[in-house]
């Protein structure tokens, strides 16, 4: 779930960077540092996507009504 | 207590059971042996109690069953059933200890008439939901693009959980699936579904919910036509995808959900982006990123090239001007040179040591000296002395 939200952040940022660079109104230093960040974000998103493994949890309510989240076996 | 089939244990007065023990045992045997089922028959001997409970019998030509239906289940009926009506009752067979009677605890009653009670109850509930604006298409929420957690409200053992799990593992394993289990058919389905749905606001990071069960008969789906369940779905804090597998009947749950999916697998697909497509999208973004910098580099290159051209042409004209100036200076230098005068017929006399002889007194008789003319030098001697 952390992977999921980091992925979304990486993707959002990457798309923003690409649009910014394509606008072409940055000076060279800015463009280069954005490009480097873009490459990092792209690598991050790809890694998260490739490494993700499905996890299944279950919600368990105890008698007092409080909820607990556990791994679902099997 | 002895095993109920161990007849020997009860064959003597010492092992005698109390009445309560027998009814308790009988109840356990009946309830374990017969799960909630639909019973068809003629409704007779109807007695509504002040508490809201209904008591009646179901019968056919050969037998009858005593029935009790508690207020929480009768509440939704606008009118009581009529004597002699043919009905379907969803009921848990049990033993009522106080009277020692075998009876049915009824949770749902449908007229066998197609346009009977079931249709009426459905229409009434639908009208209520409509009145409260819960069927308004404008209420439908868009599904999140990247759900962190997907809650699934269904039974733990059903095919729904398995199907959804498989699809999410394939398409978008970044989403965590969280099971909130509830019976999806039988007596407790309505209560359990409402309870499970009520947990949702307390589970963190849930971005979308799938509520569903596999296909089933109209009777199996009754909990998904419950007004209470429909209201619980409408109250969910995040978008709900309804996957009540039934093609012909649209349940109330389907109507209030944000998205209706034909199957649990389709619900899981609707809930998730596709990993393969996302890799492709990332590829495109990578290309655009590279292209943006490449474009920049090319523009820089052009600028440098243009600058270089301008520099070269500047240098060239500078050189040209310099060359012209040099030419002019060289001309002037040439004009200043005494050698140029020799071309016009003058000559220069120099002593042997090289110094210029320009006065008569410097030429004693017999002096040897050198004479420089325009194209060379020659030795000379004053001969008159």
* Largest interchain contact: A-B, 37 and 39 residues
Number of strands of chain B: 13
Our Rg estimate of chain B from Cα atoms comes to: 55 Å
**Quick one: biggest sheet of chain B?**
5 strands, mixed, barrel
Helicity range of the residues of chain B?
25-40%
- Uncertain stretches of chain A: none
> Could you report the average pLDDT of chain A, rounded to the nearest whole number?
85
Fraction in beta strands of chain A? 5-15%
Shape of chain B: rod-shaped
What summary fits the major beta sheet of chain A?
A: 2 strands, antiparallel
Strand order of the largest sheet of chain B: 1-2-3-5-4
Count of distinct strands of chain A? 2
Task: Give an overview of the whole structure.
The complex is a heterodimer of chains A (74) and B (385). With 74 residues, chain A is of the alpha+beta class. Chain A has helices at residues 2-23, 28-51, and strands at 56-61, 67-71. In chain A, helix 1 (2-23) packs antiparallel against helix 2 (28-51). Chain A is elongated, with a radius of gyration of 20 Å. Chain A starts with a helix and ends with a strand. The relative contact order of chain A is 0.14. The mean pLDDT of chain A is 85. Chain B has 385 residues and is of the alpha/beta class. The A-B interface holds A 1, 3-5, 7-8, 11, 14-15, 17-18, 21-22, 24, 28, 31-32, 35, 38-39, 42, 45-46, 48-49, 52-59, 61, 67, 69, 72 and B 145-149, 151, 156, 165, 168-169, 172-181, 195, 199, 202-203, 205, 275, 278-279, 282, 285-286, 288-289, 292-293, 295-296, 299-300. Strand 1 of chain A pairs parallel with strand 7 (176-181) of chain B, so a sheet runs across the interface.
């Amino acid at each position: 779930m952390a992977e999921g939200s980091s992925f979304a952040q990486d993707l959002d940022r990457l798309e923003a960077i690409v649009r910014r660079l394509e606008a072409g109104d940055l000076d060279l230093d800015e463009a280069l540092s954005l490009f480097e960040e873009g490459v990092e974000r792209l690598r991050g998103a790809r890694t998260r996507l490739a490494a993700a493994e499905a996890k299944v949890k279950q919600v368990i309510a105890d008698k007092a009504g409080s909820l607990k989240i556990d791994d679902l076996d099997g | 207590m002895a095993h109920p089939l161990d007849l020997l244990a009860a064959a003597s007065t010492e092992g005698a059971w109390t009445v309560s023990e027998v009814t308790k045992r009988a109840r356990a045997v009946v309830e374990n042996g017969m799960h909630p089922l639909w019973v068809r028959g003629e409704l007779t001997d109807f007695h509504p109690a002040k508490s809201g409970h209904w008591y009646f019998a179901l019968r056919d030509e050969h037998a009858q069953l005593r029935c009790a239906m508690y207020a929480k289940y009768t509440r939704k009926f606008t009118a009581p059933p009529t004597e002699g009506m043919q009905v379907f009752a969803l009921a848990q067979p049990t033993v009522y200890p106080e009277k020692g009677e075998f009876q049915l605890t009824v949770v749902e009653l449908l007229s066998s008439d197609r346009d009977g009670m079931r249709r009426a109850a459905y229409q009434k509930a639908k009208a209520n939901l409509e009145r409260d604006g819960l069927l308004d298409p404008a209420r439908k929420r868009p599904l999140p693009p990247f759900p962190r957690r997907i809650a699934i409200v269904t039974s733990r053992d059903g095919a729904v959980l398995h199907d959804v799990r498989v699809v999410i593992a394939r398409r978008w394993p970044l989403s965590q699936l969280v099971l909130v289990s509830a019976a999806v058919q039988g007596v407790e389905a309505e209560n359990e579904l409402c309870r499970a749905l009520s947990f949702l606001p307390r589970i963190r990071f849930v971005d979308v919910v799938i509520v569903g069960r596999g296909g089933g008969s109209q009777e199996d789906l009754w909990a998904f036509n419950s007004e209470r369940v429909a209201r619980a779905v409408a109250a969910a804090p995040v978008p709900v995808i309804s996957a009540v597998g039934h093609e012909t009947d649209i349940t109330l749950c389907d109507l209030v959900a944000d998205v209706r999916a034909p199957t649990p697998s389709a619900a899981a697909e609707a809930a998730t982006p596709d990993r393969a497509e996302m890799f492709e999208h990332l590829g495109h973004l990578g290309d655009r990123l590279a292209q943006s910098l490449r474009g920049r580099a090319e523009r820089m290159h052009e600028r440098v090239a243009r600058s270089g051209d301008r520099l070269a042409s500047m240098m060239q004209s500078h050189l040209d001007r310099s060359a012209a100036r040099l030419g002019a200076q060289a001309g002037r230098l040439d004009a200043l040179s005494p050698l140029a005068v020799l071309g016009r017929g003058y000559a220069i006399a120099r002593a042997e040591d090289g110094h210029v002889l320009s006065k008569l007194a410097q030429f004693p008789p017999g002096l040897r000296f050198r004479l420089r003319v325009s194209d060379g030098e020659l030795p000379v001697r004053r001969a008159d002395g």
